[in-house]
Amino acid sequence: MELLDGRKVANDLLDTLKIEVDSLQKRDILPKLVVILVGDNPASLSYVKQKRKACEKTGILWEQINYDESITTNELIDTIKKLNNRDDVHGILVQLPVPEQVFTPDVIRAIDPKKDVDGFTAYNLGKMFLSPDFEDLPPCTPAGVIKMLDYYNIDVSGMDATIVGASNIVGKPLTTMLLNRGATTTTCHIKTKDLKANTLKADLVCVAVGKRNLITEDMVKDGVILVDIGINKKEDGKLCGDSDFESISKKASYITPVPGGVGPMTVACLMENTVKATKNLNKIT
Ligand code: NAP
Q1: Pocket probe mutation, ligand 1, options 209, 269, 273, max atoms within 8 Å of Cβ
Q2: Residue range 17-69, pLDDT digits in tens
Q3: Would residue 144 count as lying in a domain?
Q4: Are residues 146 and 240 in the same domain?
Q5: Do residues 107 and 208 share a domain?
Q6: Residue with CA closest to ligand 1 atom 6
Q7: How far does residue 207's CA lie from ligand 1's centre (Å)?
Q8: Other residues' Cβ atoms within 10 Å of the Cβ of residue 64
Q9: Is residue 165 in contact with ligand 1, taking CB distance under 6 Å?
Q10: Given the CA of residue 242, which atom of ligand 1 is nearest to it?
Q11: pLDDT in tens, 160-174
């Protein structure tokens, strides 16, 4: 079994991006990411901190706008419109989730797709359907999974891939990206009749649900590649994924740890999208 070491792959990517940022800075182009944070949800604060650290590591400029829980959809949209018009801003990210009174789809829709470094707008998601060549600003978590598989020379073409979880930000775009690369994909969700039958047949299982121990050793075949995207908190406060790492690692050919797997890759791909957006906006190929 080989560990898919997301921390190492992400650090390598950040080092490469730093070189790109340095060369942009020499041309007086200063990549900048603006993060909008609403409220003080501990998980959001922790994600924002990780993103800020990655900006510091790569030299991407960071601006954070904090709002109180009581913010309205229109107030957020007004802020985004101003950021869309600022030439010094290349990436805009609204840390999700936002409070209930805010209508998230309208907030996402307000972001200029050219600055949508989270890859959540319909424009950037829609482009992914065409081919890998059009995955310009893909959602960061699925992009991180693909990048990690590439790093370990895992070619998914011809593989049976089962994706567990069908959210708009992880499961669905990951399905599209794997399909784009020649995998035969099955996407499972809460209404799937027989989850085990679908994971058992798969060469590659990717799970993104948010339920501890959802995938157990009896649900995967020998030699499986297991990518665990889920993040859950154990009783002792430590993080774990959606699968039983201990027992599946004895059966798997490759497996991601949680933490240290997909999480760091997501952040690194956000940095990559910010650099890409900067280059696109400045018409640099
Ligand atoms: P989400 O929007 O809640 O989506 C969860 C998906 O899982 C839904 O499609 C849901 O189906 C499905 N599901 C729920 N119970 C299921 C079950 N018993 N069997 C099969 N499918 C089931 O969550 P998300 O935003 O995609 O995130 C999923 C997990 O990944 C969370 O733990 C999150 O923290 C983690 N995550 C990690 C990263 C990272 O960088 N590592 C990034 C993003 C998210 P229905 O829609 O039909 O209910």
Answers
A1: 209
A2: 999 999 999 999 999 999 999 999 999 999 999 999 999 999 999 999 999 99
A3: yes
A4: yes
A5: no
A6: 165
A7: 8
A8: 13
A9: yes
A10: 32
A11: 999 999 999 999 999
Ligand 1 centroid from CA 242, angstroms: 9
Alpha helix (H) ranges present in the chain? 6-26, 42-58, 73-85, 104-110, 122-127, 140-151, 171-180, 195-200, 245-248, 262-281
148 in the same domain as 212: yes
Same domain as 149, residue 251: yes
Element containing residue 94 per DSSP (H, E): strand 91-94
Q: Quick one: tokens of 12?
A: 């390598």
Q: Are residues 107 and 162 in the same domain?
A: no
Q: Please work out whether the CB of residue 208 comes within 6 Å of at least one atom of ligand 1.
A: yes
Same-domain check for residues 148 and 256:
yes
If one counts the domains in the chain, the total is 2
Among 176, 275, 258, CA closest to 6: 258
Whether residues 89 and 156 fall in one domain: no
Domain that holds residue 37: 28-114
The Å distance, Cα 26 to ligand 1 centre, comes to 42
- CB half-sphere exposure, 153, CA atoms < 13 A: 1
Distance (angstroms) between ligand 1 centre and the Cα of 230 equals: 7
pTM: 0.97
Q: Give the position, in ligand 1's atom list, of the atom nearest the Cα of 232.
A: 32
Last residue of a domain, which of 98, 114, 130?
114
> Which residue has a Cα nearest atom 41 of ligand 1?
263
| Whether residue 60 is found in the same domain as residue 176 | no
- Residues catalogued as catalytic: 51, 95, 118
